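Practice set, problem 2.
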Amino acid sequence: MVTTKEEWQAWRSHPLTKAFFEEISELASECAAQVLNREAPDIAKDQFLKGYVRGISEFAGWQPQIEQEEDDGDRTDSQPGY
């Protein structure tokens, strides 16, 4: 996905987006706490929760490809103009 820097910043700063990321961060923290505070290990559930937390973390850190801004023509080429 390609977007502009302004569109990405507007989306990330929108109140709904912020609320969503706060909720998934809280959910990831709760899942991690379940794994860490369990008295008797449940290997299958613990592995699932660890994968879930990792997936949420990767999702939260994702960023789209940002469009490069157009040059205004002042740039000089790296090749000499012989």
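Problem 2, part (b): a different protein.
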Amino acid sequence: MEFYKKIQIKAHNKLILKIKIMNLKELEKLKIKNFINHPDLKRRLTLYCIATYEDDAMIDDYHLLTVFHDLQRNKELYKLEMPINLGEPS
């Protein structure tokens, strides 16, 4: 499964967004300090945290990075691939 595709968007000859294709093996080796170039990963982590921790989910960048590193260390990044069931709307 691919997490995101390589996209480059320029405005006034300045690169404003750059995203590249990442698969699970690449994610296992990825070292990140922020989500500037990884918006899809941030979205997936946010959904994962909300589904896993429900009302106790902390979805600021610091905690999302902590969850990413925990999943990476425990070789559980595959959990970000699975569809997340957020339940029935209230």
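Answer key, part (b): The chain is about 40% helix and 10% strand. The first strand starts at residue 7 and ends at 11.
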